[in-house]
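Email to the structure team, subject: DMT family transporter model.

Hi all, the expression group asked for a predicted structure before they design truncation constructs. Nothing fancy, just the tokens so they can compare against earlier work. One-line instruction: predict DMT family transporter, return tokens.
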Amino acid sequence: MKQPASPQLMLIISMVVFGTLGLFVRNIPVSSGELALYRAILAALLLLVYFVATKQTIPFGKIRRELPLLLLSGVAMGFNWILLFEAYKYTTVSVATLSYYFAPVIVTVACPILFKEKMTIKQWICFAMSTLGIVLITGVGDMASGSNHLLGIAFGLGAACFYAAVILLNKFIRNVEGIHRTFLQFIAAILVLIPYVGVTSGVTLSKLDATGWVCLLVVGLVHTGVTYCLYFSSLKELPGQKAAILSYIDPLVAVLVSVLLLRESLTPMQMVGGLLILGFTLWNEVTPKVKVNG
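Reply from the structure team: attached below.
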């Protein structure tokens, strides 16, 4: 009998794939909004084929009350993609990704407001040190840091805000399975991105050469359709701490891709900033085990 894939292995694979996203996006010469739309369409079509093949149906009666939240989170996901793709255009993949990984810090600060949770001293320290990391990444005091670089960081932080919104909205969604939730979020993203693309860039697929088409299909089908399924399926089976630790494979791979394959520079100060963001965000998510006597 064929053994099911290890949830840990599934999460590792998904994080490695996510980390290579910038490499493929750089080779797709369409607007960020258009790319986000195609990404959502391709991924939604792939999941639709999967539902038909496995004879799955979405229990709309059961999830009716949560549909507005699902649609809203899908809209946030779509604009999250747009801003992340814009960040890739204006700064390096590594800096854009590290800025994007400020999202958990935003969630930490938002939770006391939304859920009446109190921030601990540890959380305040993590927030302060992660914010310092962002300051170091911007290259404050470095005259070589141009306006494009700062704009890229701003887009990355904007993407982080929308990603934080997706995380927070999902906390209110309890009756929808991961794969059904993802499909409906893709549909919501498509519905909002179609008019957005119509009034901004329009359809420019004619610009794509063979490399562009291959990269677009990889981003839509692999990075989004397949990898999101692996990601959400693994999260259901893994403890939160282990998932949090493994999720940092994504930015580490992105930095390696940026420096080694794209030949983009990363200053020592930016490296320190990135380590502050990733290190203190990880520390914030990991709670020590309580020893039980006896």
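Residues 241 and 288 are 10 Å apart (CA to CA). Confidence is low (pLDDT under 50) at residues 289-294. Ping us if the truncation boundaries need rechecking.
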